[in-house]
Amino acid sequence: METFSSLADGFVIALTWQNLLLALLGCFLGTMMGALPGLGPSNGVAILIPLAFTLGLGATPSLILLTSVYYGAMYGGRISSILLNIPGDEPAMMTCLDGYPMAQQGRAGEALSLSGIASFVGAFLATWGLILLAPQLVKIALLFGPAEYFALFTLAFATLGGVASSNQAKTAFAAALGIGLATVGVDTQTGVPRFTFGEVHLYDGIDFLVAIVGLFALSEVFLFLEHRHGDSDAKGSKVVIGRLMPSWAVVKSCIPTMLRTSFLGFLAGVLPGAGASLGSFIAYTFEKKLVDKEGTFGKGDPRGVAAPEAGNNAAAGGALVPMLALGVPGSGTTAVLLAVLLALNITPGPLLFTQQPEVVWGLIAALFIANFMLLAMNIPMIGLFTRVLLIPPRILMPIVAMVSFVGIYGISGSTFDLMVMVGFGVMGWVLRKLDVPLVPIILGTLLGNAMENNLRRAITIRNGDWTALIDSPLSIGLWSLAAIGFILPIVVGRFVKARMRRMAKDEEGSIVD
Asked: What's this model's pTM, rounded to 2 decimal places?
């Protein structure tokens, strides 16, 4: 009952005109960001962070705006998958398999509406999962001491690559780079400057918002400058949308699929490092084995659209569980959201539920509202969102650059931060060329200081005895999970990614035939 009472309080906070408008704005912008191939939820949230801070919003409204962008981008990722056979982001890859054949058959409108309904079901059930599971996880997290927290941070770094990672060594390198960046500035325990090279602007360390906007948003602009062309010019105009709403018989046949795959997607989201990509893959393959008796999957079966969409949106909700309850992000986008929380002087973790319940429950209530808004917005406005695909990058990218520079200068008022942002933009561009993931760098910059402080405390309490780090069943369990989480993707991840590519390739071949 306490949970439902807290949720009711959350709705009181979320149901203000300002918060409703911010949720609506976030859903709209997020869907547009998600629809653009290549941007995805992480980039979408990163690009719009300066907007939240420039508007001078408080903690809860900022989070409502940015999580609405997150959910909106997860919805929007399917649009280019279905219409162009180009996934808006990696989790939307599986939607191409049946969504594009449906579009080829003149049923693009039906596929888009059905994917919108499946996304709604997945996200709605995942938000209930968040409400029920997060408080239970908090009770366990209250048993944590410095040694357990250090092991938990190690678990976060070890598993962040997940099965979506192409190279665990590159992920580990990126995490080490992020932790190294976190050591820049005055040491909070000894007062000694580290790696500042006499530059006073670096005494407070590197602002992670500057790092995020540089790494994600500016590097995207640099990639565009390098290629000097885009793929989205006027391709969408060739697509026939057709009838918008699927028949009730089609929706009814997809309901069991949506319920099953929402559960699977949520579980994948809660696991650190698994994320929405694994959620959509598991959902599609499980459903194909279970219900595809006539071999219709891959040829425009509506259940093949509903399964990955419900799965990846449920995973997005599930990824919020470890972020809010433990302070450890469950996916790349939640790592960016974690940065926003820290920038707002909010420390995610078990104490967040007791010390700032208005933030948590206001956010959860806003997720419900955003979900209904997205359903209401996505079906009638499909025509508008498909027009987004026509925006040429030569117009879009200057807007991204302008928002980044104006936003960061508006937050800090420092030209030095702008130079640092450009430096991170160049670094992001180089690392992308080398196929090094950017999210572990952000996570290292965010959690590096907390990880170091907990290590020092654990060792100091035991007078320098390093066995303190493995002195409790909880920490041993976390270390074991970290080891499994690092090694398992090396073995399983290759197989999963190869199979995802093979399925996409087979499908492409069948369309050509």
From this structure: 0.75
